[in-house]
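From the methods appendix. Each design record in this collection lists the tokenized structure first, followed by the designed amino acid sequence. Records were kept in a plain field format so they could be parsed without special tools. The example shown here is representative of the layout used throughout.

RECORD:
FOLD TOKENS (115 positions):
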């Protein structure tokens, strides 16, 4: 999820008669591009997981499990780096070289007197 809801960009990428599902907090006030929504015959739907029934959550969990088992649900790209490369990671983010997430690993060594 993201704090930003760029509905204008989403509608631009949306298929004819597509649907946008909005996950947002109460204070979120996205700009609604009514004209493009109208011309593409699209819809915008709000979603709060806290309103889902137990049956809906169970069905969603089953679908996710099936997709994971089939290898069809791919996580966002993650670049693992050691904590010592934090400056490099920050630079890559600033330059827009990262698609997905950077994971900084903290490699802990156990002192010999604690083994």
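DESIGN:
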């Amino acid at each position: 999820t993201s704090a930003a809801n760029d509905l204008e960009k989403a509608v631009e990428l949306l298929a004819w008669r597509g649907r946008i599902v909005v996950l947002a907090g109460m204070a979120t006030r996205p700009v609604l591009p009514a004209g493009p929504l109208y011309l593409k015959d699209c819809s915008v739907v709000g979603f709060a997981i806290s309103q889902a029934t137990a049956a809906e959550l169970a069905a969603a969990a089953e679908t996710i499990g099936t997709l994971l088992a089939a290898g069809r649900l791919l996580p966002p790209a993650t670049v693992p780096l050691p904590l010592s490369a934090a400056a490099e990671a920050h630079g890559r983010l600033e330059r827009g070289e990262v698609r997905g997430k950077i994971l900084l690993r903290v490699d802990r060594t156990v002192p010999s007197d604690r083994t």
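APPENDIX NOTE: The chain is about 35% helix and 15% strand.
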